[in-house]
Amino acid sequence: MSTGLPLITTADRRHRLGRRHRLAPSARAATPGQAADAVVALHATDAATVHLSARARLTEGGPAAIEAALYEDISLVRLLSMRNTLFAVSTELAPYVDASCARSIAAKERRSLLKHLAEDGQGLDAEWLARAENAALDALDTLGPSTGSQLSAAVPALRQKITINRGKKYEAETGVATRVIRVLAAEGRIRRDRPRGSWTSSQFRWVHTEPWPALPAAEARAELARRWLYAYGPATEADLKWWTGWTLTDVRKALAAVAPAQVRLEDGGTALVLPGDTAAEPAPEPWAAFLPGLDPSGMGWADRGFHLDPAHRPALFDYAGNIGPTVWWNGEIVGGWAQRADGEIVWRLLADPGRAAAEAVTAEAARLAEWVGDARITPRFRTPLERELTA
């Protein structure tokens, strides 16, 4: 029976989101690393998302401040991690993300590449791959930050072509450079440096770096689960499994190590929070936010019913379940936004949240437009409403 459990209301959950995700103005972060830690990790599949997600959570600073965190003081790094997806995390959290998620992904990437090499039939094996990797690292030491094309020009082995899926309809010849670079990056032996072009570009340069310190995987999963519960609780076992991509066994072991408390939700269900984290959350001041596609606040749960009207989902998500740019009011998604080719920020509210909300949304749109300046943003995963607004 759940009747004796503490109740966390939908309003409490929205208050938590505003404060803990640092979206309410009084809760905004001083640094990009703090902004990332607030939501555990920033989605980084789309280069612009990291910057726009951090922007929404920072007290001040333009794109250059986020670039400095990524490429100068290295307080923020991109890792192929949860759900085999690229995220940006603080360097303080990175070893835990590496041990709990990235390390197993890297092992799979290496096995997959070795399988393709073996099936190609040219005698390319683990020894050949090791030599190619060492040559690529030596080239980075000599050249400094380099693109994949520059590395291929400097390392003959990276120009090697192999045939994958031989004998099948989708047989294809491909170069090994991208796959070798992906393995090295997954293992933390290289990392993404400044892209060619602006902060919206995904054509990264690469630099040689040292792998993260080895941590016990179980310890790392427990720490990641603890941080996730603080940022996203109340949440369920299913939410954590979806967010991490872990097996159900690993999810349950991590939660057992955290020993979360159970709470009751307004819809009659139950969820988990950190031990002792059951008190009602004071309401922050009213706040509006313009969040980019794939922002963690929209993607942090498998079940998003507490902050998203199901009727609005078709307009705001693509066919694969990726959320597009969204407009928020006090912890609830109330619309979507886009940037037109001439740079204008446009938006549409899918409900009527009232006059105060409309005024706050207009002011936040102006703040976003000033921050973006001359840059142009086209989400990698386009949604129906975003396409309509830019048509």
From TrEMBL:
Q: What is this protein called?
A: Uncharacterized protein
Q: Which organism is it from?
A: Streptomyces lavendulae subsp. lavendulae
User: Per its UniProt record, what PANTHER family does this chain match?
Assistant: LMO0824 PROTEIN, WINGED HELIX DNA-BINDING DOMAIN-CONTAINING PROTEIN
Domain of life of the organism in this record?
A: Bacteria
Q: Which Pfam families match?
A: AlkZ-like (PF06224)
